[in-house]
Amino acid sequence: MKIIYILSDSTGETAERVIRAALSQFYEDDVRVHHLYKVSTQSDVQQALSVAVLSPGLIVYTLVDPHLSEAVERVAEECGLITIDLLSPLLYSLSRYLGAHSREKPGLLHRIDTDYYRRVEAVNFTVKHDDGQETRYLHKADLVLVGVSRSSKTPLAMYLAHKGYKVANVPIVFGIALPEELFEIDQTKIVGLLIDPKRLVEIRTSRLINMRQSPRGSYNDYQQVEDEISACRQLYRKHADWYILNITNKSVEEAASDIMRRMEMNTGAEY
Q1: CA dist 260 to 74, 139, 182, 185, Å?
Q2: In the predicted model, is pLDDT for residue 71 greater than 90?
Q3: CA–CA separation, 19 and 90 (whole Å)
Q4: Among the listed residues 138, 126, 109, the one whose alpha carbon sits nearest the alpha carbon of residue 162
Q5: pLDDT at 198
Q6: pLDDT > 60? residue 40
Q7: Could you tell me the CA-to-CA distances from 29 to 20, 24, 139 in Å, in that order?
Q8: Beta strands 190-194 and 58-62: pairing type?
């Protein structure tokens, strides 16, 4: 049994990926990878390597602090252990190429990975909860957008999802009751969208033309649209905790920024 020790100031995931990729080029199956992570002090280095002394193996480490790297090399030499520094040569070369010093902060890559997977999860959630789907899971959403058809619910939801928010959107259909689940969740999560009736008529007419459908009908009839917006306003006035946002003259990015500022004020969390 051969042992490879991963010594890291964070989770060790970066080093393990490299090691697993390298090991795949060998037929040697009798190798155990052992993690020694969250090494942040000289004392941690001594303690971690004391484990390797008892069962000698190869030390592969990713430490952004050069002083800790030096400590590993010193202690390893004293104990007769073989080491491989995966990170320092790369950081040194990048520093020379970029003309800048590294930040020397452990865990940055892991944090990037975590943020990436959070955004992927948010996008998946948002797709599954588009246009009133799966309302039984509204309580799991970070945000719920409500509004009439073509009031930018879906593009706004997807933009926010790529920022890490799990977003559901529920259409307001004239004459049809909203799902009960909407009123059972934290009402401060709900954003009511408004749009000028004339602008909405233009958007709906353009959509009908693009779909090669008749541009004449109740869907884009001005009086019908005005009645829908009027009903929206009445609904919104009944729910003081909802955040009401008029998106008439706003881009998706501007509307999203307004919503995110509101969320950060309510939760204190930054995405």
Answers
A1: 49, 18, 20, 19
A2: no
A3: 16
A4: 126
A5: 94
A6: yes
A7: 11, 9, 47
A8: unpaired
Output the CA angle 40-42-45, nearest 5 degrees: 75
Closest-CA residue to 7 (of 54, 29, 40): 40
Q: How many helices (H) and strands (E) does the chain have?
A: 9, 8
Nearest CA-CA partner of 170 in 186, 146, 151: 146
Between CA 85 and CA 249 the distance in angstroms is: 55
- Name the residue type at position 207: R
Amino acid (1-letter code) at residue 95: S
Give residue-wise pLDDT tens across range 21-34.
888 877 666 788 88
Domains along the chain? 2-106 (3.40.50.2300), 114-267 (3.40.50)
Cβ contacts of 195 within 8 Å, gap of 6 or more: 147, 148, 151, 152, 203, 229, 246, 247, 248
Secondary structure letter of residue 178 according to DSSP: P
Phi, psi of 212 (to 5 degrees): 55, 40
Q: Reading across the β-sheet that carries 31-36, which strands appear in turn?
A: 31-36, 2-8, 58-62, 83-85
Cβ atoms 31, 84 nearer than 8 A: no
